[in-house]
Amino acid sequence: MLKVSGLNRKRLIIAFGIVCALLVILCFRVGYWQIIKADAMTEKAVEQQTRDTPVEAKRGTIYDRNGAELAVSGSSYSVWARPANVKSGSTEEKKQAALDTCVSALSTILDMDAEEVRTLVTKEQSLVRISKGIDKETADKIREKELPGIEISEDTKRYYPLGSFASHLIGSVTDDNVGLSGIELQYNEYLTGVSGRWIKNTDVAGNGLSYGLEKYYEPEDGLSLVLTVDQVIQNYVENAIAKVQKKTSSDRVMCIVMDPENGDVLSMAVTPDYDPNDPRTPTKKSEQKKLEKMTDKEKLEYWNKMWRNPLVSDTYEPGSTFKLLTTSIALEEGLTNMNESFVCTGSYKVADTTLHCWRRGNPHGTQSLKQAVGNSCNPVFMQLGLRTGIEKYYEYMNLFGITGKTGIDYPGEGSAILQSKDTAGPVGLATMSYGQGIAVTPIQLITAISAIGNDGVMMKPHIVKELKDKDGNTVEKYEPEIVRQILSEKTADEMCEIMEYVVSDGGAGTAKVEGYRVGGKTGTANKPDTVKGGYLEETYSSFIGMAPMNDPKVAVLVIADNPKGIKYGSQTAAPGAKEIISEVVRYMGIEPQYSDEEKKEIEAKQTEVPDITGESLSDAIGILGGSSLKYKVQSGNKDKDFKVKDQYPKAGTKVEKNSTVYIYGSD
């Protein structure tokens, strides 16, 4: 038996005591973590082992009235990091190496600053988004790296297939697919949908645990919108106002096209436009350079102005187009009639103020009511306004919707600026009666004038027809909404007659379309000087009209903002409106109806193609020349006098003089 010395015994006792003490400490430590810190440790383990990846809902599509796609959602990808898992490794060196590898790979593939990536992947958050909106190729490159703590999720990205087409109407979205402006903002809650989640238990490398749970909550896609807007009409409008801006050098040109019968907005366009696929970059390079030099505050103001839709949000002085409302009021109240005569001396005295006609140096003299509207004679409308009286005039302003808002389904609708009824006085009423001293929104004016073409019934303007789910089923349909009856059918008919006269025989002749009964009114109003008072040389030049006047199907308002050179609405806005009306009525299938005089004019410009088959080439050329037609040999030896075998157009066809007839002969 081994005998232990006293010294060794002491050493053994001390060692045993130390071991016991360590065991007691270890027990307390284990108890601390297992009992006292149990909930915290469980929560941390669950957090590290649980991947909760958001699954973005698909934003609803925006269609035109015929099903053409104006805004769609396509697939894109987002890169996410779980900072707790990025630093994987058993030692600090390995963890740091894993972090450096992750930062280097992501910064290279995503073309991001390395320090920015490092800051993101080391944040004290459970989940951090590194980048979004990347394409599949880039996402696959990141997947191939198999970086610990890095995840890829599939998102949706808003895409506008037609670029800047109808940009002010449709609007755009933020980087997070939230409506930023226009219809995208107005109907954001319907378009957005509800995001889903993909929750699963994984190890550090992202592999699923055999004992773990996995739940997938499918996203609920947003509803799609069907607009009242017609892509074809919108295209006609955008082309026409682009020509107006180029010809007149206006700061901008605006246009609304509406169906008077139901309030459908068929088109809404503004120049210059912007591309909602990249809403913060102006389309013009010169503007891009200006934007680069601006402060953040100036940029925000610039963007808001660029996205803003002035047809709904801004006001302008309507000028003589407003005379249609004054005339309607006077006729409805029996204060004038179609047979009354007026005398223009070039001015009219109201209270102690003498107000002038625009043609004061050469007054209009004696004229009927219809002629007064056609001549846009200010003194006549001063008289009509004063006959109506301030109280009654403001009642009609309310009926026509000028004192309120139209309620159009579009964000940021503006309100008209009227003089106070208590302080306007006779002079204020007189100037308002011919369209000055009052400012309205374009949507207010076209809504009010459209009532004339709808037997005196005002309709609520609207842009969205219906909501549809992802399967194409209609969820909600928005029916046309009657606001109120403003005018009697008799007054509405008389106003249609007056409007047609203004185009056919009055000052809006540049809006005339052969074969169609077009009615309307031009307007030219100086802009108010908001700093010094009075008026500037700059103008709003406009035209508002409808067609065909026997049963109006389309109302058009064109506004040229600050045209250079000739400023009259008849020379700036009306030609653009003519082009729009001409295209739209034909597109709608409305057959032209020519007067005898128009038929004679058309026939005078046409000739009938003679029959030249069987004739020699030399004779055929002479025959065509006698009928004011040109020729082109399509086949046959041009150097020989061959016999004509065929021709196009065929004999008997009516064509414009100087048209070309194609000749076919034997080779």
Description:
- By secondary structure, this protein is an alpha+beta fold.
- The protein has 23 helices and 26 strands.
- β16 (464-468) and β17 form a beta hairpin.
- The protein starts with 5 loop residues before the first helix and ends with a strand.
- The model has no long low-confidence stretch (mean pLDDT 88).
**Net shape:** elongated
This entry's quaternary arrangement is single chain
> End-to-end distance, in Å?
133 Å
**Rg:** 37 Å
Structural class: alpha+beta
Mean pLDDT across the residues is 88
Question: How many β-strand stretches?
Answer: 26
Features:
667 residues, 26 strands, single chain, alpha+beta, seven-stranded mixed β-sheet
Q: Topology of this structure?
A:
Blueprint: H1 6-36, H2 38-49, E1 50-55, E2 62-63, E3 69-81, H3 83-86, H4 92-110, H5 114-121, E4 128-134, H6 136-145, E5 150-159, H7 167-170, H8 182-186, H9 188-192, E6 196-201, E7 214-217, E8 224-227, H10 231-248, E9 252-258, E10 265-271, H11 285-292, H12 296-307, H13 310-313, H14 323-332, E11 341-344, E12 347-350, E13 353-356, E14 365-368, H15 369-375, H16 378-388, H17 390-399, H18 425-433, H19 442-452, E15 457-459, E16 464-468, E17 474-477, E18 482-485, H20 489-504, E19 519-528, E20 535-547, E21 554-561, H21 569-587, H22 596-605, E22 606-608, H23 617-626, E23 630-635, E24 644-648, E25 654-656, E26 660-665
Parallel strand pairs: 2-8, 23-26
Antiparallel strand pairs: 1-6, 2-3, 3-4, 3-5, 6-7, 8-16, 9-10, 9-21, 11-14, 12-13, 15-18, 16-17, 19-20, 20-21, 22-25, 24-26
